[in-house]
Amino acid sequence: MNCILGIDGGGSKTICILMDDAGNILGRGEAGASNYQSIGIAAAKKQIKSAIHQSAITAFKYTNTINVIAICLGLAGVSRPEDMEVIKAIVNQLHNSQDIRSITWKIQPDHLVICDDALIALMAGIGDAVGIVVAAGTGSIVFGRNHQGKSKRVGGWGYILGDEGSAYKIAVAGMQAALKAYDGRGKSTSLVENLQQHLGLESMENLIEVIYRKGWGVKEIAALAPIVDQAATAGDQIANSIIEQAIAELVIATSTVIDHIFDSKQVVEVVTTGTIWQAKCKLRERFINSIVHDYPFVNVIYPRYEPAYGAGLLALKALSGNC
């Protein structure tokens, strides 16, 4: 059976969708992080390979032989020409691998698509590669493409240089506010008590051990964002100011994309994807109210499909010569 692979690789997990050449999903696999700039090339290849293998196992219900004729890899941190070459090398090594059960590789050069994860999120969220995706999870990025094929990216610079509006930045701002309150140089906030309870700290001073000495990374820190969300939902003024700042950053980024590539009266679909949109403090509703106030023609939607399926759709487009 001729099959397509759509791969969504990020800083926390890798998802692979295996579908037939008509777009029907046959299998789905999941593995660990595959951002090679964070974990290295060998580890990234291992996780991509594992996700492919898992998707093939599921697909055995439908077929005993899998001929992969097109593949799209939408990976975090892949945007420069040198990144593309690294991923091409990984795909070539997968071609020569004999231990991905029952997969035969028959991919022509034009049927290999490598892009960053923002494009596949747009494709999946809207069902087409025209519109805007506002991705805000552990990190953040806003990406748009118009009918003429012109695209614009804002953000996506990583947790040190950017990621405004992300779970990571919300969590860091929450800890900073709590420490300022603890010092007496900032306003009182329930974040002090909430963080202490959540992390089992005797004192806020023990936060140093958790963050620095235990070597917490971006993923672990970003997981503290719900603490800020809970405090904001309960009416904490400081927590709400952190949420408002996150919303403002995402609105600015989205507005920048709109202004660069869309007509002022053109209807534009904006899809929100990522964990922060699940916040209970009405973060998404507040974002919508703000962006629609300035751009009434914008239609903010939930994702129609998961990003890995968007990667599969892009692979199908490449197969038909329409990518």
Give descriptors for this structure:
323 residues, alpha/beta, six-stranded mixed sheet, five-stranded mixed sheet
Describe the SSE topology.
Elements: E1 2-9, E2 14-20, E3 25-31, H1 36-39, H2 41-59, E4 66-75, H3 81-95, E5 103-105, E6 112-116, H4 117-126, E7 131-136, E8 140-145, E9 151-155, H5 158-161, H6 167-183, H7 191-199, H8 207-213, H9 218-222, H10 225-233, H11 237-261, E10 268-273, H12 283-294, E11 298-301, H13 307-320
Parallel strand pairs: 1-4, 4-5, 4-6, 7-10, 10-11
Antiparallel strand pairs: 1-2, 2-3, 7-8, 8-9
Helix pairs in contact: 4-13, 6-10, 6-11, 10-11, 11-12
In short:
The chain has 323 residues and is of the alpha/beta class. Helices cover 46% and strands 21% of the residues. Strands 1, 2, 3, 4, 5 and 6 form a six-stranded mixed beta sheet that branches. The chain has a five-stranded mixed beta sheet with strand order 9-8-7-10-11, sandwiched between helices.
